[in-house]
Amino acid sequence: MKTYQSYGGFENITEFVADCRDLRNDIVESLQRDSSVSTILEGMADAVYIKSSDGTVLDSNQAYRSAFTPGISPTGRQGSAYLDEKIAAVSNASDQLIMSGADTLIFNHFGHDAAGKAISMRTFKASLLGLGQPRHCILGLTRIRFMETTDSHLRLMPLFGYWEIFSKLKIRDQKIAAAVARGEKTKHIADSLSVSEKTIENARNSILKKLQLDHPIDLIKLLVRLQDSGFGDFGV
């Protein structure tokens, strides 16, 4: 069974950007000539794919298929039908950004391949709009790295679950959580938000419950970890 490559040079962002720009130039030139892009895609070691405006895969290479749809063609299907849930969510959000006017995107993310193996990814997406090929809208390239249990990225994965919950809290609750983590007194938080102390206490307890934390000190530790890992700046 064919496997895809583990990249030792994953952190070399300059090399990655150069590879992506070269690929985009080749794809743009091919589409403008109304030529097939399949040969270009198959020449790439990274997972490469082209999508329509609604996220339907129009073309992909063997590296992409081996990683995410072994034995099944992704052509004509949307990523949500076969991708890991976390990967699909990021994929859909980045597709929407491209269709909303973003020219290029580069981002790191995490998830699982088709075999359920934890992977770290760096993805490049670019707009293909305006090239005379109305169905070809989004070019994607994903560089994949397998993750071992000693990998620092893998140790971060539980934080993504906490961050997903925290980011969905109401803005006021996020402010309350950050204030608690900074050690601010309940009265001070209540005064700053023009609410009662009881409201702050209820909100704090609700936040702890949603995050499945037992004590405010656990909230402080969590927000410190999230801040140190680059998820946000809470002033802690």
Structural topology:
Blueprint: H1 13-32, H2 38-42, E1 47-51, E2 57-60, H3 62-68, H4 85-99, E3 104-112, E4 118-127, E5 138-146, H5 152-167, H6 171-181, H7 186-193, H8 197-210, H9 216-228
Antiparallel strand pairs: 1-2, 1-5, 3-4, 4-5
Give a structural overview.
- One of its GO terms (biological process) is regulation of DNA-templated transcription.
- This is Bacterial regulatory protein, luxR family.
- GO terms for molecular function: DNA binding.
- It comes from Rubripirellula tenax.
- By secondary structure, the protein is α+β, with helices and mostly antiparallel strands.
- It has 2 domains: 135 residues, Beta-Lactamase, CATH 3.30.450; 75 residues, Orthogonal Bundle (Arc Repressor Mutant, subunit A), CATH 1.10.10.10.
- Helix content is 46%, strand content 16%.
- The protein contains 9 helices and 5 strands, in the order ααββααβββααααα.
- A 5-stranded antiparallel sheet has the order 2-1-5-4-3, sandwiched between helices.
- Strand 1 and strand 2 form a beta hairpin.
- Helix 6 crosses helix 8.
- The longest helix has 20 residues.
